[in-house]
Design brief:
Strand content: 15-25%
Number of helices: 10
Number of strands: 15
Helix content: 40-55%
Structural class: alpha/beta
Order of helices and strands: HEHEHEHEEHEHEHEHEHEHEEEEE
Length: 323
C-alpha cells in the first residue's frame, strides 16, 4: 500500500509539473539551495547531484552545500542561503531535533524547505518531507535475517547517527521481527555513525570480546562495507552481513556472495520529488503532503541482478528509479 501511495503521489507530481509547464522568465532567476548532511557518502552525493540536476532541468539555479554532519555548519549554510536570497531549500538534515531551528528560520523568511531522506521532528517547519520507508524496509530485512540465520545465533548491530530518526526507524523495524526469536542473541549494539571506517574500527573492537558472532546488521551500506572489511581482515568471511541503502559496492558484494542483503532506497526518486515540489511552489502550489513515503525494496542474491547502484536495472542496462 505504501509503495502504491508513493507511486501515485510521484505520478501526480509529474503530471502537475508537466501540465504547468515551463518556467516563466521570472522563474529562470530563482535559486535553490541544496543543503546536504554530508558528502562523505556516495548515497548523499548521488542525492545532492540528482537534486541539482533536476532543479536545473526545471530552469532554475542550484548550489550544493555540504554540512559535514555538523549542525553548526548547517546553520551557517541556512543563514548564507537566506541572506543571499535563495528561493527554496532542498534539505537533508544533520539532526532530527537540532535542525528544527534552521527549518523554522527559513519558514519565518517565507522560504520553503523540502526535506529529503532525513526528517526533522516538527510538523510546522518543512513544507514537505520526502522520506524512505525505513521501518518497513527493515521489517523485510529482519524477516530475511531470521531466515538466513535459521532463527538462532549471535549477532551485532551497528547503528547510524544516534540523533537521526532513520537510525532508530531502521533499528526498530529490524527488531520488531528479530526480537520474536529468543535464540537470536544480540551481543553488542554500537553506533558507527553511518561511516565505513568507523564501522570497521568498531567491529574490530567488538570481535575481540565476541569472536564467535554469526552476523552483523548494519544501519547503512557504508557500515556494511566497513563491517565486511573488518571480518575479512579477521578471517571471518563466514559471518553474515546485512546493510541498507542500495550502494553500488554493496550491490556488487551481494552479487559476489560477500554481503547477504540490503534495503534498496531510491534517492533519485526522493531528489526529483523535492525539486518538482519546489517548482510547484514557485508556481503557486501550497497544499503539499507533510510526509511522502518512498518504498524500500529488499535486495538479495536471488534478485540482485535486477539492480544497479541506487536503482533498478532496465533492459538496456540503465538505472531506473521506482515511480
Amino acid at each position: 500500500m505504501i509503495r502504491h501511495i508513493a507511486r501515485l503521489l510521484f505520478l501526480t507530481s509529474l503530471l502537475l509539473c508537466f501540465n504547468g509547464c515551463g518556467p516563466s522568465s521570472d522563474d529562470n532567476t530563482k535559486q535553490v539551495a541544496i543543503v546536504i548532511s554530508t558528502l562523505n557518502n556516495p548515497w548523499f552525493v548521488f542525492l545532492a547531484e540528482t537534486a541539482a540536476a533536476e532543479v536545473r532541468r526545471l530552469g532554475y539555479e542550484a548550489k550544493i552545500f555540504d554540512s559535514q554532519n555538523n549542525t553548526a555548519l548547517e546553520t551557517e549554510h541556512f543563514e548564507n542561503a537566506l541572506a543571499s536570497g535563495y528561493d527554496a531549500i532542498l534539505f537533508n538534515p544533520t539532526d532530527a531535533d537540532g535542525s528544527v531551528a534552521n527549518v523554522r528560520r527559513a519558514k519565518d523568511a517565507n522560504v520553503p524547505v523540502f526535506c529529503m531522506d532525513r526528517e526533522v521532528n516538527t510538523t510546522d517547519g518543512a513544507t514537505s518531507q520526502i522520506l524512505s520507508d525505513n521501518y518497513s524496509g527493515c521489517v523485510a530485512l529482519g524477516k530475511y535475517f531470521v531466515q538466513k540465520m535459521a532463527r538462532k545465533g549471535k549477532y551485532v548491530e551497528l547503528l547510524g547517527l544516534v540523533n537521526d530518526n532513520n537510525t532508530w526507524n531502521r533499528s526498530k523495524g529490524f527488531h520488531s521481527v528479530v526480537d520474536n526469536y529468543p535464540e537470536l542473541q544480540m551481543v553488542s549494539q554500537q553506533s558507527a555513525e553511518f561511516d565505513r571506517n568507523k564501522a570497521m574500527e568498531v567491529l574490530e573492537s567488538i570481535l575481540q570480546a565476541h569472536p564467535d558472532i554469526d552476523a552483523v546488521f548494519c544501519g547503512n551500506d557504508a557500515m556494511a562495507s566497513g563491517a565486511y572489511q573488518a571480518l575479512a581482515s579477521a578471517g571471518k568471511t563466514n559471518v553474515r552481513v546485512f546493510g541498507f541503502d542500495g550502494a553500488g559496492d554493496v550491490v556488487e558484494a551481494i552479487r559476489n556472495g560477500k554481503i547477504d542483503a540490503t534495503g534498496m532506497q531510491f534517492p533519485q526518486l526522493i531528489a526529483e520529488h523535492a525539486a518538482i515540489f519546489a517548482d510547484q511552489y514557485f508556481k503557486g502550489k501550497r497544499d503539499f503532503a507533510k510526509k511522502v513515503p518512498v518504498a524500500v525494496e529488499l535486495i538479495t542474491r536471488k534478485n540482485v541482478d535486477n539492480y544497479l547502484a541506487f536503482g533498478e536495472r532496465e533492459n538496456d542496462g540503465k538505472t531506473e528509479q521506482k515511480q
